[in-house]
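This section describes the prediction task in plain terms. A model, or a person checking by hand, is given the sequence of a single protein chain and must write out its three-dimensional structure as a string of tokens. No templates, partner chains or ligands are provided. The sample shown here is typical of the held-out split.
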Amino acid sequence: MHPSADRRDWQRWLQGAGLGAQVQLDRGICFDTLDQGMGAAMAGHGVSIGDLALVGRHVRDGRLALPFKQAVATGDGYYLVWPQGSAWEPAVQRLGDFLLEHRPESASVQEPG
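The expected answer:
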């Protein structure tokens, strides 16, 4: 399953894992988000690619399994932005601090058992 129509996530992983063009990516269901792909995988509809920060809890709890131990750093990130000088700036800054304090540790992903 592909969490994006352009299949970029699988392409990155295959390149990073050194598998390059050994897999045809023109088949499989395409979703709009990583979350939809993970949900379909948890429902038993196949294999999807995911973000370790998002799937770690599901792997630890046994709802998902990692068929490969290979993870590939993409350099992608999430950013919290707001207009400069906004009246909401203090509240958004507190939200940012909260999110940083509670971000998941992707390095701690381990399968049960």
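For orientation: Residues 8-108 form one domain.
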